[in-house]
Design goal:
With 65 residues, the chain is mainly α. The protein is built from three helices and no strands. The chain has one domain.
Length: 65
Amino acid sequence: MSEGFDALVDELDRAAVALRDGELDAEQAAALVQRCAELAGRVGAELDRAGREAERVAPGQEQLL
């Protein structure tokens, strides 16, 4: 994967730790959950992009037959 993907995953990991710590007030936790949703969307898009690239570079079995 790319450095951007790794950075997104790292940020999600840090957010999970912060949420589990239980030291955030309700407003902070809600904002962090919203940020996690945004990050998850970006991670999904990055995975889709990587999958399409892999298919372009190495076609699937059905294309080889």
